[in-house]
Amino acid sequence: MAQEESGRLVWNHSTHIDGLIPVLKKLVNYRGIRTITPGALSRAKSNTPKLRLRISVPLVGGFKVIARKGKSVQEVFIVTDLPQTELQQAIAPFSKFCNPAKINEKSLSDF
Prior knowledge:
Elements: E1 8-9, H1 20-27, E2 33-59, E3 62-80, H2 84-91, H3 105-108
Parallel strand pairs: 1-2
Antiparallel strand pairs: 2-3
C-alpha cells in the first residue's frame, strides 16, 4: 500500500537499465521504503529479456537489490524497515514487465 509521505529516489548515476527508473519511482511510494539509490551498472554474460528485480543481500538498514535486463546488471540499494518477505512482495509485480515502453503510471497504478 502507498502512504501519503513517500520515500525518495536518489539520482547519482547518469545511466540506468532501460525501464528501471519508472519502476523505482513507483516503488519509492510503497509504505516502509525510505530511500532507493541505483548503484553501479555492469554487464553479465547471460541474457535476461525481461526486467527483473531480486533481493541480493540484507544490509544495515535495508537491502541490496539486483536489477537485470538484457545483459545489463545494476545494483539498487533500498533503505527500509520492511522485512525481506514484504520487500519481496513489493518488488514482485515489477518483474513481470517485458517491454519498458509498457511501464507507465497507468499500468503501475494498481501496485
